[in-house]
Amino acid sequence: MEFIACFILIVILIRVKTPVGITLVIASLALTLMEYGFSVRVIDPFWETLRGWRTWKMIITVTLVIILGDVLSRQGYLERMVNSLKSYISPNWVARIAPALIGLLPMPGGAMVSAPIVEELAKDSKSTPEAKTVTNYWWRHVWEPVWPLYQSVILAAAMFNVSVWQIAGICYPISLVCILAGTLTLKLPLPGRLGVNNGFWLFVKELVYSMWPVFFIVVSGIIFNLDLIISLLLLFVVLLVLKITNFKMIVSSFRKEFSFDILMIFIGGLSMMNIIEMGQAGPRTLAALQAWGVPIDLVVFVLPFLVGLITGLTPAFVGVGFPLVASAFALTGHVNSGIYLAYAGGLVGILTSPVHLCLVLTKKYFKAGFKGIYKHLVMPLLITVILVFVIKYIFFPN
Fold it and tell me: Which of 276, 3, 317 shows the shortest CA–CA distance to 141?
């Protein structure tokens, strides 16, 4: 199957230390060649990617996110957030709650905003770079099946002509399972003692002060329905007006954090998404799974998983993966159970993907290695998959 071949190619290229962005571009080219052969159509998915506003919008958004995380860290906002949370919550729970709070911001590469928080918490501990990476990465994504600002939830709602809250009502067990799996398996060796408690209202004041940029983006998205890129640009205007940052610091943060590889990750990932959408690799994979007698529940789970795995993009597993298996949703017992299984498969796919931007960026930030990352990641992923199917057979029986 083409998807498996592409994933093997991605693993091999990463193993020989090929930059992730270049790896994705090569894998996309390989899938395009498998689809069209050596013809002029090979350039189609890349041309669609390069000329599309979606590509450049995502690149601009992730650039702003990366700069924002660095600016907030340099200006002491994240340290104040950590200290305020530590006055009432143990450091290990802060390492979970802080990325989860930042996870309310549906940003490409948003794990980079919470990464400095985890680093600040663990700076005096014996936490390995890999453990810090996975802790930050996992908790950053626990709200993805339910939070109405996430593009995947919005896409799924539009696809089935229902509200985002109905999608959240179907998929909330996935979030609960992710929270349970992370709690059971991911724990940093941090001290159990709390920080200095200066009173509840000071705690609230410090938390609100340190979190106001997050609240700004959430409120502008939910209440005023502003696009994320507009919210981020407005936030930078406010930061400049209040003299919290300046253009020199913004340029410095950009030079420090952005790289050519990030650009290639988007071009490669979106090109992969385009070729899957334009070609027949998906339908052929579906036909092969059915011909092999794979149970329909697994088919509905596996195809979005594979799309998420090889693209690392959240919109891909819904926008491309769902249409491939939507006709089989009712065969899982109910359309809702099909949505639930497909969403769970896609989420597990992007969390497993070595080309997921959040994983790539935080791996670089913590200077971690893929081998150690997957050693920590395998158990929460395994528990998540098992419990997803247990819940399916309890609440969505055939």
Answer: 317
